[in-house]
Write a structure and sequence with these properties.
Number of strands: 14
Structural class: alpha/beta
Strand order of the largest sheet: 5-4-3-2-1-6-8-7
Strand content: 15-25%
Cofactor: Mg(2+); Mn(2+)
Organism: Schaedlerella arabinosiphila
InterPro entries: Ac/propionate_kinase (IPR004372), Aliphatic_acid_kin_short-chain (IPR000890), Aliphatic_acid_kinase_CS (IPR023865), ATPase_NBD (IPR043129)
Shape: globular
Largest sheet: 8 strands, mixed
CATH superfamily of the largest domain: ATPase, nucleotide binding domain
CATH topology of the largest domain: Nucleotidyltransferase, domain 5
GO molecular function: acetate kinase activity; ATP binding; magnesium ion binding
CATH architecture of the largest domain: 2-Layer Sandwich
Order of helices and strands: EEEEEHEEHHEHHHEEEHHHHHEHHHEEH
Number of domains: 2
Helix content: 25-40%
Family: Belongs to the acetokinase family.
Length: about 400
């Protein structure tokens, strides 16, 4: 079965067409600047990447252009829509309503819409993509795969905040966590690599990209994760602050005359390593270059990032009463050996020793700890699109 995987943002749409039998990516691409002027980047397997400017007033036109590209007589990879057996949609927030992926129905869409307040930048866009696909591909089965679903196994002691219970009771204010599709995919792959049943592992997944989160996976279930009600909590990230003293908000608001919207913009767009580096960059390659040039703020940003990751790893080792595997994934986790070594430098108490030659590899699936390390440290490239395709096929079949 060919599965079209759709990841809709407010003004963008990423897609992949995957053959679920061979798990080969037949084609992939990106629609950008939807609602402005629009552009489509498309690449068939083994072919050249092609970029074209196209007017995309709405996501419906974007989906139509994706379909046109996939079925193009010259560069397409299928002859007609009949060869696409299902569509898998990434949905960011499922609240407490979804502990697993779900076939898309009208009732399911209403439940997702009820979670819009919890993810106002993401869920509405996800729904727009779903509706656009339904309009253009009527009769094709569709599945929603939730970022939050994997973390619904967290116990109350992990997801409740120290706030009046009424806020949970009335508004469901609690920790939800994100990157669940990635954490699930990577932790399952770790179990396969080390040859231990998934239900008998203690694994800490470090998903380190511009958005970053850590997850404690105990016996195949998420028991804690660093992101919270929103993707703002947890680690210092590219432009997001991560954990801070809540009283800082009142202090800064008074000093800078900021309202709530101004504070949220500062926390989400102007903080993280970008803010710490005094505006050098949110890209770690730029930060490393600046740090090598002796720029102190960039050096501090890198130190803070690595330190925060190591602290979370330590706390999750405590939460699981031990750890068997620590795995790095996503852009920084997969490619930045120096940051991996910096983080693991804090973890000597776990009996970790790093193989420098293995750790020098980039973007590869590899064990980077030495054979005599008490805890295995691995790098496993994430593949959220493949995970979504697998979930989609399982439900459709």
């Amino acid at each position: 079965m060919n599965v079209l995987v759709i990841n809709c943002g407010s003004s963008s749409l990423k897609f992949q067409l995957i053959n679920s039998d061979s798990e080969e990516v037949l084609a992939k691409g990106l629609c950008e600047r939807i609602g402005i002027d629009g552009s489509l980047t498309y690449q068939p397997a083994g072919g050249e990447k092609v970029k074209s400017d196209k007017a995309m007033p709405t996501h419906t036109e974007a989906i139509q252009f994706v379909i046109d590209a996939l079925t193009d007589p010259d560069t397409g990879v299928v002859k007609s829509l009949d060869e696409i057996g299902a569509v898998g949609h990434r949905v960011v927030h499922g609240g407490e309503k979804f502990a697993s992926s779900a076939v898309i129905t009208e009732e399911m869409k209403k439940a997702v819409e009820e979670c819009n307040d919890l993810a106002p930048l993401h869920n509405p866009a996800n729904l727009i993509g779903i509706n656009a696909c339904e309009k253009l591909m009527p009769g094709t089965p569709m599945v929603g795969v939730f970022d939050t679903a994997f973390h619904q196994t967290m116990p109350e002691k992990a997801y409740m905040y120290g706030l009046p219970y009424a806020y949970y009771d009335k508004y469901k204010v609690r920790r939800y966590g994100f990157h669940g599709t990635s954490h699930s995919f990577v932790s399952k792959r770790v179990a396969e690599i080390v040859g231990v049943p998934y239900e008998a592992t203690k694994t800490i997944v470090c998903h380190l990209g511009n958005g970053a989160s850590i997850c404690a996976v105990l016996n195949g279930k998420s028991v804690d994760t660093s992101m919270g009600l929103t993707p703002l909590e947890g680690l210092v990230m590219g432009t997001r602050s991560g954990d801070i003293d809540p009283a800082i908000l009142e202090f800064i608001a008074k000093k800078e005359n900021l309202d709530v919207a101004g504070l949220m913009k500062m926390l989400n767009k102007e903080s993280g390593v970008y803010g710490l580096s005094d505006g050098v960059s949110s890209d770690f390659r730029d930060l490393c270059a600046a740090a090598d040039e002796g720029k102190k703020p960039a050096q501090i940003a890198l130190e803070v990032f690595g330190y925060r990751v190591a602290k979370y790893v330590g706390s999750y080792a405590a939460a699981m009463n031990g750890v068997d595997n620590i795995v790095f994934t996503a852009g920084i986790g997969e490619n930045d050996g120096d940051m991996r070594e910096r983080i693991c430098g804090y973890l000597g108490y776990l009996g970790i020793e790093i193989d420098k030659e293995a750790n020098a590899k980039r973007g590869e699936e590899v064990i980077i700890s030495t054979p005599d390390s008490r805890v295995k440290v691995l790098v496993v490239p994430t593949n959220e699109e493949l995970a979504i395709a697998r979930e989609t096929v399982a439900l459709v079949k």
